[in-house]
Each structure stands twice: as C-alpha cells, then as structure tokens.
Amino acid sequence: MQARFVFYGSLWDFLPKARRHRPVTVEFRAPQTVKHLVEALGVPHPEVARIEKDGQPVPWSHQVQEGEEFHVYPFLPGEAWPYAHAPRFVADGHLGRLVAYLRLLGFDTLYDPDWDDPHLAQLAAAEERILLTRDQGLLKRNQVKMGYWLRSLQPAKQLEEVARYFALARWARPFHRCARCNEPLVDVPREAVADQVPPYIWRTHTRFRRCPACGRVYWPGSHVARLQVLFRQVLEGSS
Ligand SMILES: [Zn+2]
Question: Can you spell out the DSSP letters for 4-40?
Fold first, then answer.
C-alpha cells in the first residue's frame, strides 16, 4: 500500500534534504495510523499543528488507506501555546544554559540532568509542561502532548527559537525567577543585602531580590548586562 504526505514549513527540518519541498510517498503493508507513518518519516507529533486530507482535518488515530494524500502543517509562531497564561517548560538534561535563560526571563522551567526519558515525558504530561529537547525520539513518545525540538546547539540561538515559536514576549518577566533553582524571587530591603553584593552594585542600585531557596541575590538592571542585551534581541524577535 502507498500513501503520500506533503509537509510544510518548519517540519522540513525533520526530513532529509532530498525529501523536502515535495510530496513524500510511503509504502506500508500492515494497517497503520497516520501518527505512525508521520513519525516513521521523522516528524514528531508535538510539532504538528494539524493533518488534512481533502481539506478536512484527520485525527492522529486515522487508519491510512491505499492512495490517500495528507497535508501536514506546523504551528505558526505563538500557535503552539494558545492559552491565556505563561507557558511552563521541562527541559532534557543537555539544555542547562537554555534553562537558565528561560528562568531569568521568568519562565517556570524544570530541569535535572539525572531525569531519564520516561520521567521527562511523564512530567510534561502530568504538569502540562512543554517538553524542550534535542532528542526527536523523546518527542515521539505518546505521552508528550506539547514539545519542541531545538534546532540549534547554541543556547542563545535555542532561546531565540523557543521565544519565537511560543511567542514568549507576551509572558516574559525578566529577573523574577532564580536561574539556579527555578524559585520565584522575593523583594528584599536594600539594607539587608549590603554585605552580599559588590559595593559598587549596592551603591548604584535600590531594588534587590533574593531566591528563597538558595539565597542568591539578584538586582534588576545590570545584573548580567550581556544577558539583558540578549533578552532584548530575543523578545523583540518574538513579539
Ligand atoms: Zn536559587
């Protein structure tokens, strides 16, 4: 049996170069669901916004028949998170720098390099978190409903990708969350941190926040000047 698939836009990133920009024909013997065939071609289901046949949406459980043709669409920027509150994330063990960036932008992001794939998928499902990963196989797990495969290996580029894909500018609250612990920061009086920040910083800043878990002190403004430049670029790019 044969079926044809036409993929669009960012879904090409999962296909070998020779298969992009044109329909892909698949041969199969036993009855298969559309999910099985799409993922066998390399495209993880969480990045698919919808599948259409003859202009009508089909569910993932659709049993593919001989000669059918499917059009498979990615999410447009912001579509993958249509809710009225900030998205929450869980990231795989290779994404430590990206995790710190997301937390510094205010996003609740779980991360532990010791977590294995079943645990990551289970956590994403149980807490309705977006799974961020460099592992396409992990995204294909049935449990995973929302997720994104990082194209880049560079943390700053990864942040740009995530910010654009999920339109994060709407939700960002820079310097409201600890980069190390993911805890929301609490305001502390300036006097309380006199001996905990460099003297120059203490003299030139009036507002300080502290992580209730690890005690680290943050100050909005020039805490990490380089990061702020990066955030501005990223957020402008995703608005
Ligand atoms: Zn902390």
Answer: EEEE-GGGGGGS-GGGTTS-EEEE-SS--BHHHHHHH
